[in-house]
Amino acid sequence: MIKHSLKRIALFASGSGSNAEKIAEYFTSNPEVEISLIVSNNPKAGVIERARRLHIPVLLFDRTTFYDTNRITQLLIDQRIDLIVLAGFMWLMPGGLVQAFPNKIINIHPALLPKFGGKGMYGHFVHEAVVAANETESGITIHYVNEHYDEGQIIFQAHCPVTPTDTPDDVARKVQVLEHEHYPRVVSEVLLMNNE
Ligand code: GRF
After folding, report:
1. Is the CATH code 3.40.50.170 the one for domain 7-109+141-157+184-195?
2. 109 an active-site residue?
3. What are the C-alpha distances in Å from 143 to residues 123, 136, 139, 190?
4. How much is the pTM?
5. 152: which of 22, 78, 144, 184 fits an S-S bond (Cβ 3.0–4.6 Å)?
6. pLDDT tens digits for 70-84?
7. From the CA of 77, how far away is ligand 1's center (Å)?
8. Could you give the CA distance from residue 36 to residue 58 in angstroms, rounded to a whole number?
9. pLDDT value at residue 62
10. Can you give the residue ranges of every domain in the chain?
């Protein structure tokens, strides 16, 4: 039986899942919010092991199921998911899924959009581009998700300095600190906003 007031989150992740874990930890002591599902396209992703440790059910799927059927969308509807949180999820959201969850899908990007976004701009590619462009700052962008990479409305940004001697790894470390610090709280604020 699903409790009516309970807010249910599905976390999508393709990689290590450090953000997914921070978000799960943030809500452990909150009886109003449940991480109902960790969804992944990658059976080898670190996030799978984290989910097991956190006792969160995992849903794995392949490209055909995701893009050529509405099975995933239907499952998220059936499970009464209130918010879909992308945390290092590598695939573009299919149109049907975006339409079924308007303003209920958010993503985090490891740079200050609209700079350094779009197809192919993920992980170390982002930080390499930031350093190559001699940027003096980088940061994080949390935004709503539409059918295009990194183009949905921006919800929140946080900045960090980039010094002339910083390597892409240095920038990645600074950005990850910001991600872990802000993403869980912003997720909870979006849940509250959606409730009003
Ligand atoms: C983060 O840098 C996030 O901004 C990006 O993918 C990365 C995921 O890292 N979208 P992790 O798997 O949460 O450690």
Report:
1. yes
2. yes
3. 17, 22, 13, 10
4. 0.96
5. 144
6. 999 999 999 999 999
7. 25
8. 9
9. 97
10. 7-109+141-157+184-195
What pLDDT sits at residue 151? 87
User: Atom of ligand 1 at shortest distance to CA of 140?
Assistant: 4
Residue 114: which residues within 8 A CB-CB, separation 6 or more? 150
Q: Which two tokens stand for residue 149?
A: 């990479």
7-12, strands of its sheet edge to edge: 58-60, 33-40, 7-12, 83-86, 105-109, 137-144, 154-161
* Joined tokens for residue 8: 């249910």
Residue ranges in the chain whose pLDDT is less than 50: none
Q: Is 152 in the pocket of ligand 1 (CB under 6 A)?
A: no
Q: Which of 49, 89, 108, when mutated, tests ligand 1's pocket best, judged by the most ligand atoms within 8 Å of its CB?
A: 108
Name every residue whose Cβ is closer than 8 Å to that of residue 96 and which is 6 or more positions away in sequence.
70, 73
The distance in angstroms from the start CA to the end CA of the chain is 24
Ligand 1 and 17: CB distance under 6 A: yes
DSSP one-letter code for 88: S
21 lines ligand 1 (CB under 6 A): no
| Ligand 1 centroid – CA 14 distance (Å) | 9
